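The records we work with from here on pair a chain with its fold. Taken together, the tokens spell out the fold as the letters spell out the chain. The record below shows the convention in full.
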Amino acid sequence: MIRDCTETDFDAILSIINDGADAYRGIIPADRWKEPYMPADELRSEIGHGVAFSGFEEAGGLVGVMGAQDVADVALIRHAYVRGACQGRGIGGSLLGHLVDRTERPLLIGTWAAARWAVGFYEKHGFHVIEGGEKDRVLRLYWSIPDRQIETSVVLANARWLDRNPQLRADDCESNVDRPDN
């Protein structure tokens, strides 16, 4: 069951994020990894800046979370994590579908470029990678992240975003259909 998370879910959200983020250990650049991956004060700050979490509940407890944050004219998918023991069961896809259905805004997702499985997951669900200088522009416009994270991240957009940005050249947005795996 998918439900909106409340203040009482804070500890569960934090635990799921840090458990699920373990998949990135050794994959993302070492200078971007920290322990814990998300400290409690950072999560509080994210929620304070408008990240609203939805959670996938199973057997009375949360096993996956995904946040959404309205920024300017778009919605950002933020902090999408499933407990390691529960990954690969469609929980992330269910949460993503839930958030897509809840907004009419164009959607953007930022993730680590080295996390090919994460990029592939979003592509499988209809998102397209934004490449080149447009990726950097979008990250600077909608996120508050350091330059090093911009260098090591990708942005994916849904069709609503692409429809509102027709000026993009064909080589600025790609689909996994034509791009070989690295």
